[in-house]
């Protein structure tokens, strides 16, 4: 899988619109507003938009058309099946960027709905709200990259098939909460307070991830092997995961998520 380096652009995007302020749309809004971005929000999800307006001074548009008219870049964050229908017929203009964050919906479907604007696919995660989202996107558009970088690492992919695979890491991110919950639950059952259990589990997960990021060329399994002492506690626990097939089921889970994403665009 090849991640390409984002290119620098000439024009600066200023006003950002969000159509569809559901849970993920609100996470985007919170992160962008926290980074000092001027936001124009679609009027639905009244309670969320009102809260964002009160906290960050976001503008609430009268309708989706106003969001488009007043924005240089627009995020489409409605339900995947509603993306094309919602975007069709709005006053898109040449040079405008439209970033769809809907899983599974192909670029040509989005582009047809937003022409003559330029369509981009992206997969931010809920950690956008704390500006820690590693956001994959396609194609490598410099203006979209500059905005996504406000939410965390912006990771462009030139090939849509590669992006399709990379976008499934949004599901991996979600599943990590289940893993952390299981481990934290074990720690709590063995005497730690609930807060200490969650905090320690999360920090250990973060530390392992940081080591992988730091040692880019080193496979995670090699890092693991360095930690294993024959007859030690890590080896004993790892045996259980390997013998029960717990580790090998992770690719199965991601296969299921990828299959579901492909089915969404197929209708």
Would you tell me the overall average pLDDT?
Answer: 92
Strand content: 5-15%
Helix content: 40-55%
- Please give the radius of gyration in angstroms: 21 Å
Can you tag this structure with a few keywords?
267 residues; alpha/beta; 8-stranded mixed sheet; 12 helices; 51% helix; elongated
Describe the protein's architecture and organization.
51% of the residues lie in helices and 12% in strands. By secondary structure, it is of the alpha/beta class. It has an eight-stranded mixed β-sheet with strand order 3-2-1-4-5-6-7-8, sandwiched between helices. The radius of gyration is 21 Å and the shape is elongated.
Concise overview:
The chain is of the alpha/beta class and 267 residues long.
Write the layout of secondary structure elements.
Blueprint: E1 15-19, H1 23-34, E2 38-41, H2 46-56, E3 59-60, H3 64-70, E4 73-76, H4 83-87, E5 97-100, H5 107-114, E6 118-123, E7 135-138, H6 142-148, E8 154-156, H7 160-167, H8 169-189, H9 194-214, H10 220-227, H11 233-243, H12 249-266
Parallel strand pairs: 1-2, 1-4, 2-3, 4-5, 5-6, 7-8
Antiparallel strand pairs: 6-7
Helix pairs in contact: 1-2, 8-9
């Amino acid at each position: 899988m090849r991640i390409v380096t984002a290119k620098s652009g000439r024009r600066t995007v200023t006003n950002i619109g969000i159509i569809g302020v559901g849970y993920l749309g609100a996470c985007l809004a919170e992160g962008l507003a926290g980074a000092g971005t001027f936001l124009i929000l679609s009027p639905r999800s009244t309670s969320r938009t009102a809260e964002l307006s009160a906290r960050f001074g976001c503008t609430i548009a009268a309708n989706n058309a106003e969001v488009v008219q007043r924005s240089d870049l627009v995020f489409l964050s409605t339900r995947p099946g509603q993306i094309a229908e919602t975007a069709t017929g709005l006053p898109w203009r040449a040079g405008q960027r439209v970033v769809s964050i809907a899983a599974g919906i192909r670029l040509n479907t989005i582009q047809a709905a937003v022409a003559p604007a330029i369509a981009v696919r992206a997969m931010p995660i809920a950690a956008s709200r704390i500006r820690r989202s590693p956001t994959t996107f396609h194609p490598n558009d410099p203006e979209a990259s500059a905005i996504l970088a406000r939410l965390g690492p912006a990771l462009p992919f030139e090939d849509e098939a590669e992006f399709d695979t990379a976008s499934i890491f949004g599901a991996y991110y979600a599943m990590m909460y289940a893993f952390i919950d299981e481990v934290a639950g074990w720690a709590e059952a063995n005497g730690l307070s609930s807060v200490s259990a969650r905090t320690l589990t999360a920090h250990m997960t973060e530390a392992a991830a940081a080591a992988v990021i730091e040692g880019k060329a080193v496979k995670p399994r090699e890092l693991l092997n360095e930690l294993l002492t024959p007859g030690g506690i890590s080896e004993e626990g790892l045996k259980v995961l390997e013998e029960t097939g717990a580790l090998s089921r992770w690719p199965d889970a991601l296969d299921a998520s990828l299959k579901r994403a492909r089915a969404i665009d197929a209708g």
